[in-house]
Amino acid sequence: MTSSTLSAAPGPMLQRLFHRLERYGPPSAEEFAALAAIMTPPRTIAPGQVLIQQFSAPQESTLLVSGLMGRLVTLRGGSQQITALQVPGDFVDLHAFLLARMDHSVVAMAECTVTTAPHRELRRLTDRYPRLARALWYLTIVDASIHRHWLTVLGRRDALGRLAHLLCELHVRLDDVGLVEDGGFDLPLTQSDAGDVLGLSAVHVNRVVQQLRARGMVSWNRRRIEIRDWRALSDLAEFEPTYLQLEPQIET
Amino acid sequence: MTSSTLSAAPGPMLQRLFHRLERYGPPSAEEFAALAAIMTPPRTIAPGQVLIQQFSAPQESTLLVSGLMGRLVTLRGGSQQITALQVPGDFVDLHAFLLARMDHSVVAMAECTVTTAPHRELRRLTDRYPRLARALWYLTIVDASIHRHWLTVLGRRDALGRLAHLLCELHVRLDDVGLVEDGGFDLPLTQSDAGDVLGLSAVHVNRVVQQLRARGMVSWNRRRIEIRDWRALSDLAEFEPTYLQLEPQIET
DNA sequence: CGGCGCATTGAGGGCGGTCAATTGGTGTGG
DNA sequence: CCACACCAATTGACCGCCCTCAATGCGCCG
Questions:
Q1: d(CA B206, CA B217)
Q2: Distance (Å) from CA A202 to C1' D5?
């Protein structure tokens, strides 16, 4: 395994992924290198572009390096649901490694940089490195944990609680990968997009955004979010970040 | 590896699991045998019993052999959300193999039979059999696919659509493991339980049940569900079972 | 028979939906 | 530099789905 494909700055590109994997009993340097070696050079995705089509059968999995992506499902009536937002360091479709067809599309919510891992190579690596396989498995399990958590949010929380929860989660996840600056972060979502995440109409998202502003908890101008009162916001959200699995895991 | 622990009728006990795993490029007979060898003898769980507590750190994963279980989260205000229903052949907490703590409880909705796999043994097996590891990984990925699908149902469908969808899904999943008889199946859920799955109040579940009855689509008496008009029900539900991943996968 | 759990029904109200108009910021062509 | 288009945010009116509270069946079991 040469480091020929490493020429395109693999360190920085995979830094956030490795940061995440290290939390789960860290793969060895050899395993890291093997993974880095199969990743393709980065490429850029334009905002709004559909990276992966629902029902397609991708032959590689995509790692988000920078930007924001969403997993999007369109229903019969034309309404949409975003089932997950992906931040840098996330694999956006690692599950496609084991599933025949995508159950959703993946859309760039902003200009994004990505790199991909061919499934053929992933298979070779997971055959050879059981711990690396479990580390990748772990990533998909954290995804599922987040999905479950949002099931309770969509099933049982009102609009204000849902929005507060989304902002708390994004703050924590973006902070984890170093994308929170001065207590705020860039959120390239329209209020309509947020509605597609929260299961709300764009109009009602606007109403609850204004409630959060009026309560002095959040400012949201352009694409910039500032959390003004974390205590109050996380309390309103009933935010309890265990489900994000950001604490180090113990590999026995 | 002896077959000593196989004495407790491992074949029938694991039959539904193997049926499922075979869909994903089948593990070999040796892998099946190795998995069967680490499963504990079956035990019975009483209806309503909490098998696994939220925030606990189980040292083994549980396979549901018969009955029905739910993954339950309780919110601050006392309201509950069931994030998944598990049917026979499902691992109810395979993700606990890789996560430090449970993000939810697991509750028996009926009298259940279970068998467990110690995590230590699972680690040994997944070290040794990469294909088996991927097959188990695959199971957790199907779980996540179902979670995502329910995010769209809870986020975008009204009460009637949600209930219709739940009944369609249960019919298909139970049919897959041979638990549909004469076009109907046993559903040991109260209408209140169904509300916890659907993000609805028990009162409103009752109202939409009656709508389905009035339209001649479903009968629901005691614990027995009969689908009277599959075409109409699945159409109302916009049910499209791809997300259940019951079609054979292709392992390259 | 009485208690209990669950299903059912009714009344009333609020959250969040749709529809539609307006504002405002940004970019573009003239 | 201005007119205009365009997109996102905002506001208002209206209404319906689904909530809560509460009462009433109804079947089962001790």
A1: 15
A2: 22
